[in-house]
Amino acid sequence: MINANDNDGDEDPVFAIGFEAALIGIGRKFNINLAVYDYNKCVEILMERDEMSVEEAVEFMEYNVVGAYVGPQTPVFVEPKEEED
Question: Domain spans of the chain?
Fold first, then answer.
């Protein structure tokens, strides 16, 4: 699920394959760039693309995507803050 892009440097982000539509930007931490994804959009992608239920998509995200550590450039999955009235 995660593509290391054959990175040699610490500055290149690692991207999650298949979640391009959920990419919201690049985060920066020290000298490392991190791909940042909208967690909820990733779940929606799994539900639509792979015909998963909400529960299946969340379980898949937690175990196979969020739980996948591929080094310091591991992507970040953000649950956007809901706007207050």
Answer: 2-77
